[in-house]
């Protein structure tokens, strides 16, 4: 993908602070970190989002995410958030699949997601839809 900023990072066409690399993935520090140490792990091949990733790459990313998350924790974080934004509505701005590994510190006071109170029957209704989708071949 010629215009993809993360493909350019992989090809070393733009600089990054790399922390891990193997045949399938690259991890580097986010240029605008939520907290210092905020890391992104990306597949070396271009896939738009999690749903396009081949299973074996998705599994490998989770394995390396765990390894890096633990290293971030041992480097001084009190906790670690792992997140993947899939699609514009979910806040994805770079359309090369990436996993955020965000160090958290007691008292860092980052905003938490607002919680909704579901209306009568709403949970059952959405559960039914999701279960139907899961059952599709
Ligand atoms: P997302 O909203 O999940 O698409 O997140 C994209 C992330 O990529 C943001 O946290 C950006 O700060 C980060 N980012 C964008 N450009 C760069 C870059 N050149 N080097 C490192 N991180 C970047
Ligand atoms: Zn790309």
What would your notes on this structure say?
With about 140 residues, this protein is of the alpha+beta class. The protein has a single domain, classed as HIT family, subunit A (2-Layer Sandwich), CATH 3.30.428.10. About 30% of the residues lie in helices and about 20% in strands. The chain is built from 3 helices and 5 strands. It has helices at about 5-10, 55-75, 120-135, and strands at about 20, 25-30, 40-45, 80-85, 100-105. The protein has a 5-stranded antiparallel β-sheet with strand order 1-2-3-5-4, covered by helices on one side. A hairpin with a 3-residue loop joins β1 (about 20) and β2 (about 25-30). The two termini are about 30 Å apart. The model has no long low-confidence stretch (mean pLDDT about 95). The structure holds adenosine monophosphate and zinc ion. Adenosine monophosphate (AMP) binds near residues 14, 16, 31, 91 and 94.
CATH class: Alpha Beta
The helix content, as a percent range, equals: 25-40%
- Give, in order, the helices and strands: HEEEHEEH
Number of domains: 1
In the CATH hierarchy, the architecture is 2-Layer Sandwich
Total of DSSP H or I helical runs spanning 4+ residues: 3
Named CATH topology: HIT family, subunit A
Mean pLDDT: 97
Number of strands: 5
Low-confidence stretches: none
Give the tags.
alpha+beta; HIT family, subunit A; five-stranded antiparallel sheet; 5 strands; binds adenosine monophosphate; binds zinc ion
């Amino acid at each position: 993908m010629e215009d993809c900023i993360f493909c350019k990072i992989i090809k070393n066409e733009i600089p990054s602070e790399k922390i891990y690399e193997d045949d399938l993935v690259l991890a580097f520090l986010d240029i605008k970190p939520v907290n210092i140490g905020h890391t992104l792990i990306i597949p070396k091949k271009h896939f738009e989002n999690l749903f396009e990733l081949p299973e074996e790459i998705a599994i490998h990313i989770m394995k390396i995410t765990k390894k890096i998350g633990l290293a971030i924790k041992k480097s001084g974080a009190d906790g670690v958030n792992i997140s993947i934004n899939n699609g514009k509505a979910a806040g994805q701005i770079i359309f090369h699949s990436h996993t955020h590994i965000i160090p958290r510190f007691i008292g860092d006071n980052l905003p938490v997601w607002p919680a909704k109170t579901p209306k009568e029957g709403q949970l059952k209704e959405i559960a039914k839809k999701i279960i139907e989708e899961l059952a599709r071949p």
